[in-house]
Amino acid sequence: MNVADLGDLSTTLVWGAATAYTVALIAYTLDLARLTEQAGTAARRARETAHTTVARTVAVGPARTGGTGTLTPRRTAPGGGALPRRTSKARGIARTTTILGLSLQVVAVVLRGIAAGRTPWANMYEFALVGTMVAVVVLLLVLRRRDLPFLGVAVTGLTVLALALALLVFYVQADGVQPALDSYWLVIHVGVAITAAGVFTVAFAASVLQLLRSSRERGSAALSRPAWRWLDTVPGLTELEALSFRLNAVGFVLWTFTVIAGAIWAEHAWGRYWGWDPKEVWSFVIWVVYAAYLHARTTRGWAGRRAAWFVLVGYSCVLANFTLVNLFFAGKHTYSGL
Amino acid sequence: MSIYRPEGIDDSYTNDGATPTPPPILPRLGFRGTVRWVWRQLTSMRVALMLLMLLAVAAVPGSVLPQRPVDPAKVSAYLVDHPGSGVWLDRLGAFDVYASVWFSAIYLLLFVSLIGCILPRTRAHLGAVRALPPRVPRRFDRFGAAGGFTTAAEPRVVADAAAAVLRGPFRWLPRFRVDVREEDAGTWAVSAERGYVRETGNLVFHLALLGLIVAVGTGQFLHYRGQAIVVQGRGFANAVVDYDTFEGGSGFDPASLVPFSLTLDDFTARFDPETLAARYFRADVTVRNPDGSERRESIRVNHPLDAGGAKVYLQGNGYAPDVTVRDGAGEVAFSGPVPFLTSDEVYTSRGVIKVPDVSAGEQLGMVGFLLPTALETSPGLWRSVNPQPNAPLLVLSVWAGDLGLDDGIPQNVYQLDQQGMTQATDAAGAPVTLYVRPGGTIELPDGLGSITFDALPRFVALDLRHDPSLAFVLAFALAALAGLATSLFAPRRRVWLRAKPAGSGRTVITAAALARGDDLGLQGELDRVLDGLPGAGVVPLAAEAGDITDNGDDLHDDDLHDDAVTAPEANR
């Protein structure tokens, strides 16, 4: 089998992974629907046993985390409470297909690297491929300890979208790179940047969930409909916030490293460590927005909902940095290969 | 102990559901009061947050609009295309955003705010790291993590054992700061705190950012950079006049340039055979040091050369056709390589040959293209199909007249000022186009002379840069990264333990732990401490629960007024 065949095989495997993730997306959605149903049943039961406090039945997740106090749900949704950890067929399928998709994707990335004879992250197609792979790994790690089908829906949904976009729009043949990219910094700088983006993706999903749940608890008309009942079963706001923060903290440190490594590489390749190239500008903007998020978390009156909005803004900037900046702004980072 | 906190920071040990106190009605402020108020506002969290957001927003236009320091030609083009808005944008500094007044104002205010916040915090922290851990609260039942059991060991022994476990195996690097004291008769209490390094990391991060901006500024002040085009077989000397462009910071002294010289011996370029995309560039050079010693080096993209305390980067390359022009009298009027600028990936290169020193007649100018591998795609239409010089061809049009070089106005060497010149035409009035191959000589029209295409050497564009602050910039950046990671990932925890005699030689141990912010490992930490005590795991606490939770006293500890009080479901 020659090198070009390996590249083609890699592409086929990516299609396979995208298909597996689509199945997983459907399964996660079904699981979410089931959760909604269960929440409805729980709500009915709660109404029947009126006035008994549901608030004390805690324990979403393992008892130990429930015991650390800060994770204890403080505000319990009307008629909500939380449900014991469930097992469901849909969840099993979702998990299996996600792992299957991930395995296919890992092989695809490795083959792509062999076919191109270099690190497999040097153009937009490969960024999308590896970035989604990281996001799925983080998703699986997070879901190992938590029952959050919404996170599965959000992350596999974004992954399928990104992979489809990559295959249909960003695709380029596996090939070598221009001299400026021919450096071990490609492995470090771009690898860490993609990892950070993957981590930010899952954190983004957690923050969206936090905002949805908090809106429902505040009596938002749109989110009070029965279809959103599943929101009562997700972990409490505090735990969602904590999850998002922990991921964002990791993402932020990785991003800081990305910027520093990028500056060192720029010094080597272009003779200046910082030159306000569009990509540098947007990396800076992302860094500042997530820094603002970390500050907002510890500012009175800004923690919680407001801080979560920063995550949404920050993630939009990550996406803009990946798409808009690569495709529409001329700069030294236009390595999309398109 | 009053700990300095910036206005508006909510950085306490987890404080559940506490309502902020309403702002008091303030008396009128005098001048000093106003200054103090402004300073407090500037150093408050809320203003810092707003400045951060402003900074993010203010940085965006620089990526959308063309920027002068990056590409002045694009800015000029934009101004021509947008005569109305362009002028206003220019006045607002939108074409040099990162040096504009408003952008500078934002980040300077941010750094003033940072200094105002960080310096007092550093002072407070230096005090805090010397202070004892907070006193043991009366009651443990309202803490997130709690535990305990009954043992046969003496309270004093238990307390010392707990202190040993908390301090960890290294005396010089204790995990917890521990305070052991006797409370009432026979009851021993241990209070411990870890994670001072978290605040240390936070301060290091912010101070390193401060250092970073100072280092960057110093670099701007002292740096210099110059660009030079060097043709194969030729060289340049490291002196301001030898550069094509040169700029230095206001603190740069031209006399400080180390007078080395550099010769381009050879240049290697490799391209992908199918896509023709660039794959490998290498410039082999000889560096001649001021002391006369020589060394052979190669410069590649990503592998700059160190010379004379500066770095030499390979930034571009192209062809410099070596031509000889004879004037109408047959005298050699010009001879040498002329760099042609590459415009695409097949190295279609554009350039101008200016011949001012003719012995008689008008000055000559030739404008045209060099095609490294020329192919006639249709009659009279030539284009390059490969970046390598497989079949080079010079395609030139000829102008005669006044080149305008004596006007004293600096001219672009890659452009012909056609104002004082007329183009040579054939009998039918159509412009004459010359096609010259290497080794060939062609007569110029109208008896203007001849041109010989002698050879096709390559040239490289070198970028030479010296910035003495680089090491500092890197050191501060890495310090910031380390501080950031520490401040985000190092847990900050307090552990309290009380060993109380319960009669008949038994000791009831109760313990609790508290974390700043959210902390998954808190209960585990407490469990580890308890597991390390004498008699651990013998009698579970549940059997003795009555002894502990009913101490009766309300929480009144000073240190705890802002601390976590959470729901009582945590026990072992």
Detailed description of the structure:
The complex is a heterodimer of chains A (338) and B (572). Helix content of chain A is 68%, strand content 0%. Chain A has helices at residues 3-48, 63-66, 89-116, 124-145, 149-170, 185-217, 237-269, 278-297, 305-322, 324-328. In chain A, helix 4 packs across helix 6 (185-217), helix 5 crosses helix 6 (185-217) and helix 7 (237-269) runs antiparallel to helix 8 (278-297). The longest helix of chain A is centred in the N-terminal third of the chain and has 46 residues, at 3-48. Chain A is flat and about 70 Å long. The relative contact order of chain A is 0.12. By secondary structure, chain B is an alpha+beta fold. Chain B folds into four domains: 31-128, no CATH class; 145-195 and 491-560, TATA-Binding Protein (2-Layer Sandwich), CATH 3.30.310; 218-319 and 461-477, no CATH class; 322-459. Chain B has helices at 31-42, 45-59, 61-64, 72-81, 83-91, 101-128, 155-167, 196-222, 470-489, 522-531, 545-549; strands spanning 145-151, 177-182, 188-194, 224-231, 235-237, 245-248, 261-271, 278-288, 294-300, 305-307, 310-319, 322-327, 332-337, 341-342, 349-355, 363-371, 374-378, 381-384, 393-401, 421-423, 433-436, 441-444, 449-455, 458-466, 493-501, 507-515, 539-540. In chain B, strands 2-3-25-26-1-27 form a six-stranded antiparallel β-sheet, with helices on one face. In chain B, strands 14, 15, 16, 19, 20 and 21 form a six-stranded antiparallel β-sheet that branches. The model of chain B is unreliable at 14-18 and 539-572 (pLDDT under 50). Chains A and B meet through helix 2, helix 7 and helix 8 of A and helix 2, helix 3, strand 8, strand 11 and helix 9 of B.
